[in-house]
Amino acid sequence: MAIDYVTETVNLTVEGRVATIEMNRPESLNSLNVDMIKGLASVMKEVSNTEEIDIVVLKGAGRAFSSGGDIKTMLLEANESDFPLVMDAINEMVVTLYSMPKLTISAVKGAAAGLGFSLALATDYVLADKQSKLAMNFIGIGLIPDGGSHFFLESKLGEDKAKQLIWEGRPMKAEEALQKGLVHEVAEGDLDEALQVKLQAWLNSPVQAMIKTKKILADKNRPLLLKVLELEKLGQAQMRRTADHKEGIDAFIQKRKPVFKGE
């Protein structure tokens, strides 16, 4: 498999009609910093505009899919004036992934948490390793989900169950996520082998008809996704100013249980 694009944070490989985008910060469990977010958006746009590619795989290097947004760089070091730009980059990445005229599949191993979980939900098919853990855990640091998660979770679970999952914020094993409809398949054996089986099934299908169905639904839903992303951007800015968020960050750094006061 030839490597076509490599940076410090994102790798792109293409083999035949399949492109694989790999998040490449294994030392931080592929936590998403600004460079990775911008790199992913750029690579996704390139792939989206390449006619020879029909299928896109999203995966993480090392032990995890993605542990979510990089708290140190995104929440502690970023200037407040930079925050809207960071959210805009996240939103661009998610819209590009959701809307691209390709079939997309997430190969999830280890952690898929927070923004990392949002990315997986934005793909057409989520294939998870049996030992993986998935969590919409923004609530633990006094934030709301972003990356379009309100949109994706409501479409998969309905409004009531989406709210409960967001408010609980607890990790789920792959089988539980499968039962809830958040994962499409749990690999019985090796994740890579299960991925190849799925890819071959798709490659032997009328892919253009599948992509057309995706495009019709994505075009219909895109205005709502854009609205949700804008509401998440505004809501997240408000949550970042709360005492509970500061307490959540302090507790995370100090590795203790947070004490929230609803402030």
TrEMBL record:
It comes from Cytobacillus purgationiresistens. PANTHER family: EG:BACN32G11.4 PROTEIN, ENOYL-COA HYDRATASE. Belongs to the enoyl-CoA hydratase/isomerase family. This is Enoyl-CoA hydratase/carnithine racemase. It holds the Pfam family ECH_1. CDD domains: crotonase-like.
